[in-house]
Specification:
It contains 10 helices and 10 strands. The protein is α+β, with helices and mostly antiparallel strands and about 270 residues long.
């Protein structure tokens, strides 16, 4: 492409305005991961596309670093990235690419030095104090137990303790007759013998998109808790509101689902 075309101020402005899409994407991801669990059709495909998109937008924003829209994005991007870190501490691929983009742009853009000093101070305080408070709150209120949904994606250390053929069977029949609820089985590691839980949540509140699903989380009802890990239950839906279960001792029990708890908005702290 001709050098004069690349230096055209109107082209740079148009590209700069286009890069608002990246800020919108990161803001959307932070909001979605606060309210939902994002499940991609292909995690590997998402990782590749997400990293590539971050690299492309970084190049475009470096190209337009003197434009006002890019300067604004450079100063604003690190805030939704901070939220991504808080809500996705166990998924670095979600927050590392935009964090790199945000840091590079912050220093590379042509914003005034006074603006960078002020915003830099704010972000240092936000990240240092915010992350310290997050880890303190997680430690004090989140408890020491580790809960893992038992399915084929769970770590081998967990799946080796259960009859996974039976678990896969149960997971395939987890949705209630009308599709209103679904159950899942949870392995709980704690300071004692651990637990196995049967948890029910709504099944009709997910939002489906072409390449990913926003799975509603936070509305749950723990219908059964067995006080030892490694015991594979058997579960049946009696009707749309009633679930029947046994933990291998031959005794079948039933639980009626009346209503879900209020949504737990602090699940990212492992509270509730």
């Amino acid at each position: 492409m001709n050098k004069s075309v690349l230096s055209n101020k109107w082209l740079k402005l148009a590209v700069s305005l286009l890069t608002f899409a990246y800020l919108a994407l990161i803001a959307a991801l932070s909001w979605w991961t606060f309210l939902y669990e994002i499940r991609f059709k292909s995690d590997r495909a998402f990782d590749i596309v997400y990293i590539a998109a971050s690299a492309i937008f970084l190049i475009l924003m470096l190209y337009t670093r003197k434009q006002l829209p890019t300067r604004f994005i450079s100063m604003a991007l690190l805030f939704p990235v901070f939220l991504l870190i808080i809500f996705n501490t166990a998924r670095p691929v979600i927050y590392v690419p935009p964090l790199v983009v945000g840091i590079v742009l912050f220093f590379a853009c042509s914003a005034s030095e006074s603006t960078k000093v002020i915003m830099g101070t704010i972000y240092i305080l936000l990240y240092v104090v915010g992350l310290v408070m997050f880890f303190i709150a997680s430690t004090l209120f989140g408890g020491s137990s580790v809960e893992t949904v038992i399915n084929s994606s769970a770590p081998q250390e967990i799946t080796s303790q259960y009859d996974m053929a039976q678990i896969d069977n149960l997971n395939a029949m987890s949705v209630s007759p009308s599709g209103k609820y679904r159950y899942y089985i949870v392995d709980v590691q704690d300071n004692s013998r651990g637990k196995v839980m049967i948890v029910v949540e709504p099944n009709d509140r997910d939002i489906e998109y072409r390449y990913f699903t926003l799975v509603e989380v936070g509305y749950t009802s723990r219908v059964a808790i067995y006080s030892t890990r490694g015991v594979t239950p058997d579960i049946r839906w009696v009707d749309d509101q009633t679930i029947s279960y046994t933990f291998g001792d031959g005794e079948w029990k039933t639980s009626t689902i009346t209503e879900m708890k209020d949504k737990n908005y602090l699940r990212f702290l492992n509270i509730g």
